[in-house]
């Protein structure tokens, strides 16, 4: 295993072990070793979150561990965030983003927000548990290029369709591109509900947003 692979594995394991000190140390080592910050997030810490999710499914971890894993990830993000600024993608557009109604998961959304900002986007972050009405109001108020939605629960992903329907009813649907993401989201689902794209991770999502904005310019 190369030094870089070893550091990414340490980032992953620190999340799984809910070890804040270890994640901070591994995040610093990642920067020192020249690993791009986004890679440390996606290929290190986010991989750890996947394992945490599996352990929860298997009954080995409980809600308390999920919360601790979320906190550990936030501490790691805090170390890496300042280094994301040197983003290699350059494009300026405006994005309204939120986690849909009923859903409180925001770690993945926050990764997307961080990478969007690093790529020079103006981001209006509506937070979690965002209703269709709130999305519509935000689009009216901010006139964004893109609406981005996150859902982590199979029971809340249906809210995305409600948001799109509400945008249609308000005559705003064709003014924006819509991208959706989160663990249960697939390109097929995006197509079914009339979104423009689905992204499997934040890097892919931000790349897509950049393409849309560049095509406009
Ligand atoms: C951490 C966590 C929590 C934390 C959330 C803390 C927080 N502040 O977000 C807490 C403890 C609060 C929590 C609560 C619950 N959770 Co939870 N949680 C997780 C866990 C372990 C990790 C999620 C995570 O943060 N992953 C890391 C991030 C980086 O990944 P991500 O979110 O997938 O995001 C990436 C991509 O999907 C993408 N992305 C995400 N959003 C978007 C948006 C756009 C626009 C784009 C482009 C990309 C994109 O980019 C991100 C980065 O690359 C998952 C398991 C899993 N494997 O997903 C379960 C999981 C999502 N939770 C689950 C459940 C059941 C719950 C609860 C119902 C538990 C309970 N009994 O109360 C509650 C629901 C609360 C609610 N109403 O929302 C289930 C969902 C099952 C299902 N299929 O519906 C999962 C899958 C666990 C499991 N295996 O059973 N949870």
Q: How is this structure best described in words?
A:
The chain has helices spanning about 5-15, 20-30, 35-55, 65-80, 105-120, 130-140, 160-170, 185-195, 200-215; strands at about 95-100, 120-125, 145-150, 175-180, 195-200. The chain has nine helices and five strands; from the N terminus they run H-H-H-H-E-H-E-H-E-H-E-H-E-H. The model has no long low-confidence stretch (mean pLDDT about 95). Helices cover about 55% and strands about 10% of the residues. The protein has about 220 residues and is α/β, with parallel strands linked by helices. It folds into two domains: about 5-85, Methyltransferase, Methionine Synthase (B12-binding Domains), Chain A, domain 1; about 95-215, Cobalamin-binding domain (Rossmann fold, 3-Layer(aba) Sandwich). It has a five-stranded parallel beta sheet, sandwiched between helices. Cobalamin binds near residues 56 and 201. Cobalamin (B12) binds near residues 42, 57, 103, 105 and 154.
């Amino acid at each position: 295993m190369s030094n870089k692979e070893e550091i990414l594995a340490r980032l992953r394991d620190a999340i799984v072990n809910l070890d804040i000190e270890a994640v901070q140390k591994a995040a610093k080592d990642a920067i020192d070793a020249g690993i791009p910050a986004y890679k440390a997030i996606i290929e290190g810490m986010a991989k750890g979150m996947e394992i945490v999710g599996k352990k929860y499914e298997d009954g080995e971890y409980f809600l308390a561990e999920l919360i601790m894993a979320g906190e550990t990830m936030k501490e790691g993000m805090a170390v890496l965030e300042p280094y994301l600024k040197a983003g290699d993608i350059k494009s300026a557009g405006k994005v309204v983003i939120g986690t849909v109604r009923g859903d409180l998961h925001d770690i993945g959304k926050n990764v997307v927000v961080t990478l969007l900002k690093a790529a020079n986007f103006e981001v209006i972050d509506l937070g979690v548990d965002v209703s269709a009405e709130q999305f519509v109001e935000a689009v009216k108020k901010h006139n964004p290029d893109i609406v981005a939605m996150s859902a982590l629960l199979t029971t809340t992903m249906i809210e995305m369709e409600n948001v799109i329907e509400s945008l249609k009813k308000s005559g705003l649907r064709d003014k924006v591109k819509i991208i959706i993401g989160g663990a249960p989201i697939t390109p097929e689902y995006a197509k079914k509900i009339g979104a423009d794209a689905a992204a499997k991770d934040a890097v892919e999502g931000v790349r897509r947003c950049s393409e849309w904005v560049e095509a406009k310019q």
